[in-house]
Amino acid sequence: MILINLLPHREAARKLRRESFYAALGASAILGILFSGFVYLWYQSQISSQQSRNLILDSEVKRLEIQIKDIATLQSDITALKARQQAVEDLQADRNLPVHLLIELVKQLPSGVYINSLKQENQTVTLQGVAQSNERVAEMLRNLLNNTPWLAKPDLVEIVAGTVALSPREQRRVANFTVRAGLVRASEAEKTSVAASGPVQSTSSPSTSLQTTKAP
Hints:
The protein is α+β, with helices and mostly antiparallel strands. Helices cover 64% and strands 21% of the residues.
């Protein structure tokens, strides 16, 4: 017996394929949504973690900034204390500057040069005096420049020709001068003296040691 299917099998197959397609499409959409949600949650967790790390870094940066300010304040305080200490040391060392100045003037003034006035303003000394000639003044300037560590950069401010009455009938031509020089602090003068006398001490010390060894 021959059976003939008279139902619309093509429409049924097409409907079945359509339903399968919609089912696969729905499943893909659900999987896509789930995956997107998972990615979103993962990114949110990463963002939250990074934000917490940023907060920690911000707090550490603020703490370090406070420490840096404290260190800067300490450094300024140390600098101020060093400046005060240096000022006190300079004052203590400069107490004997007038004595050194007078001693050096006695040593360095050539014969025929006389000082009438001596004035000190801060670290500047002004000398006013009389010399027998301009050559005497030049010699004094050379001595002050090369032979003493207590005076620096002597400068001839002015020199004026004049006369001095030796007797009612005799007059002599002289040079009235004004010299300005810088007064060197005791610490710097001592450094200069030590530097100048260093090679001499080093050469003399071996001979001293030899003499002491030969003495027994």
